[in-house]
TrEMBL record:
Originating species: Ceyx cyanopectus (Indigo-banded kingfisher)
Coiled-coil zones: none
Pfam families reported in the protein's UniProt record: Sedlin_N (PF04628)
Similarity annotation: Belongs to the TRAPP small subunits family. Sedlin subfamily.
Top-rank taxon, per record: Eukaryota
Record key words, sorted: ER-Golgi transport, Transport
Name of the protein described by the UniProt record: TPC2L protein
GO BP terms in the entry: endoplasmic reticulum to Golgi vesicle-mediated transport
GO cellular component term of the entry, any: perinuclear region of cytoplasm
Gene: Trappc2l
Subcellular location per the Swiss-Prot or TrEMBL entry: Cytoplasm, Perinuclear region
């Protein structure tokens, strides 16, 4: 699955095709959450664009989102 933001940031999600429990609206919701968290990081005045994202909150959000899927 892929998601492109208005600012042309691309998110790609690779899922196991045997997991048919995922619906398109669930994937879309996951991308929205990821995009919102990414936007929060980009709006941080201490973040330098292009640097590696080093945020525990972002990592925790992604990990919890993936744990819900697995």
């Amino acid at each position: 699955y892929g998601y492109v933001t208005n600012s042309r940031v691309k998110f790609v999600m690779v899922v196991d095709s045997s997991n048919t429990a995922l619906r398109d609206n669930e994937i879309r919701s996951m991308f929205r959450k990821l995009h919102n968290s990414y936007t929060d990081i980009m709006c941080n005045p201490f973040y330098n664009p292009g640097d590696r994202i080093q945020s525990r909150a972002f990592d925790n959000m992604v990990n919890s989102m993936m744990m819900q899927v697995c």
